[in-house]
Amino acid sequence: MAPEKESNGLENYAFAIDGRFCDLEKDGEGSDLSEEDDKNKLAYCVTDIPPWYLCIILGIQHCLTAFGGIIAIPLILSQGLCLQHDSLTQGHLISTIFFVSGVCTLLQVTFGIRLPILQGGTFTLLAPSMAMLSMPEWTCPAWTQNASLVNATSPEYVEVWQSRMRALQGSIMVGSLFQVLVGFSGLIGLFMRFIGPLTIAPTISLIGLSLYDSAGMNAGNHWGISTMTTALIILFSQYLRHIPVPFPTYSKTKKLHTSKIYIFQILPVLLGITLSWLICYIFTISDVLPSQPEQYGYLARTDLKGDVIVQAPWFRFPYPGQWGLPTVSLAGVVGILAGVISSMIESVGDYHACARLSGAPPPPKHAINRGIGIEGLGCLLAGAWGTGNGTTSYSENVGALGITKVGSRMVIVAGGVLLIIMGLFGKIGAIFTTIPTPVVGGMFLVMFGVISAAGVSNLQYADMNSSRNIFIFGFSMFSGLVIPNWIFKNPDAIATGMVELDQLLQVLLTTSMFVGGFFGFFLDNTIPGTKRERGIIAWNKIHLDDSSNTLESSEVYNLPFGISSCLSSYTWVRYVPFLPLNAPSSQDKPGVDSLDTRKQPGKPEPSHIIRSVIKR
Fold first, then answer.
1. Could you list the residue range(s) of the whole structural domain that residue 163 is in?
2. What is the pTM of this model?
């Protein structure tokens, strides 16, 4: 979700300003813009098409912005899938999630919400997935925890991890059908009427808090390296974020010159990981780090998985069912449903934030329905391809729109194509698996902390001076920590006499976000309280706002390739929740070309655009 922030020109300042940054033609109104409005004005709006090289450059940036979240998910899942000591398979999983994220991004931008929003793996499905894999029947055999006993090519070992992956795939695929139904049927609006800040806050916060053990185990392999990684990410993202770095650029008018780029705010995670990675490499070749496996700090060495890059194929095409035929369990499906609901609600908030930052009108209901439906379809594809996860909209990339001042969806299309290309080259995924585990642990410390805080930020809409709200949030959070912890320590405590019911309760009660979210939802909807006290009025103002059936809205959110025009003559269209109603076309307004190819009047040369994008 995107909390309100101050307008400093470098962050998500959209909520601090009335109106949109970029409208359709205004016929001279731009001369009345104040200096502050001119600073905040987008260089390219959602329907503009920047130069091809700018699309590629900014597309790469969006991929790098999502890099941390995308690769973290397979690395965490590898523990539950018994793949800790099989780096080659980890590389295949990373390549697969890159590929599927690219495909889902193209689907979302073209046929879904049609806003410049990147799709990638979701942490909301990670908690129920790990809870499912922690069940007694899926506990990893002891020999898989010993690197010397693992033969990655043996049929026995392959079946161990693939059987777990297939169970995870089936649960995700069935659970994603619920999201497809909710999206394309228009039920998301009904869900949003009963789910407010006091439900979302504990749900999202417990996603990060429930992963503390994973962060601790990775960071604990060498606290010095993990602390350095954390310190570097904090330094770049917080202390140096407003400091521009001069970079050499070339233009026809100015020839070779320097431009200032806020590199630390754009790529803090990547810079922190890369620098720590490099230091670990230096420590490895200089034998500062121990060379014996039993010594503390051995896992910080960079030469432990050097053969993985050599073994990985140059080209590998991921395909559905590559790990075998998915299997389905009731417990897994119900657990995944809890994550799917959280993902849907978070995405609705991302849509509105993205619309404001890209100069688009608020998304109408049909676009939101279609966006949620396409995300469900993306989760279905992710399950079929075997990423072990689903897909969702990335809030980090929504924030990047405010940094670059480029809201064009063509940039995200370029980013989606780049993700697909990265997924097709196996050695790219293999490279990421060689990151030392303490470096990954340092990244987790920051990332999971931010996720927890992002959940708490939703309380800004509710009245936290109310004892009612304090009780609901506090009880939900504490229960979401206590109950799963007790169930983990007493796995045999649930014995109803029905194996299926035992498994169902085991998964649900060990999923922190479900426990906390359930109590938040139940108490918030049953304990008396005014809508203003509960935060429902402010919440709905942000998340249920609907734009009118205007020309601007139709140009941004209507289906592409003339599909909306072809369907406009049919009366049954008004009864389909994910199709746009009849709206005036841009062709009906003289002097305005289609926004798919429109160039803003008086737009500066591309070389000047690059400077305006990266310079404050």
1. 52-538
2. 0.72
